[in-house]
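batch job 7 of whatever, protein = L1 transposable element RRM domain-containing protein
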Amino acid sequence: LDETEERITGLESEKVQLKDALLHALKEQKTMQGKITDLEGRSRRNNIRIYSIKEGAEGASMFKFINGLLKTELSLNDDLDLQIQRAHRSLGSRPQNDATSRSIVVNFLQYSTKDLVLCTAWAKGIRYEGRPIFLAHDYPAEINAKLKEYKEVQRVLKKNKIRFQTPYPAKIRIHWETGPQLYDSAAEAAEDLNKRGYAVDLTAISEGSERQWEERLTPHTQWQRVRNSAHNRIREKLQGFQRQPPTT
């Protein structure tokens, strides 16, 4: 019994230490991933993405095609220099289905020019070959994935005609009657909406892999550190069941 108790005590201590190390590693990974995403977002600051233009429709020169398309559809001055540095299809293999197409990434020299193009396109709308095309910021994949989590929240807000915004990086600001309130995640916004009486499907909102691991490791663990007094009390109770050798 002493040997078993000693081994269990060592196993519990080792398990708690491993759990603390893993939680620390997850925290450091989250911090590092945030810095990498921020750096990538800054490098894409002057980029826009153009969607719904079929493959091969751009012709021989992507630069001339995009420059002419934006000036024509947005009614910009001919003497305005858009200062487009690069324009190319997004990375990846060409899709087999003709109905799908890769987005076009356009890099501007100045942010003010990019902002002018985006605001004008959102206000007027832009079409190509009779079909609407869409312009958006070129965010990193992590931010785009987080923005998609707000779909259910945005659906409820639009249904109830509540004004909202999604400021960078992937947050949501809801304008309540009492004033605007900023939320860091879709789960946080959905929880507040449910408290205010707006039904939001929480199953359609992901919590994020890091938070899921933290929740699994922190509150639901079976082994926790105990005080020495409790440990000694348990030891005394177990010793009461210890068999004594017969006396001669």
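notes: The mean pLDDT is 84.
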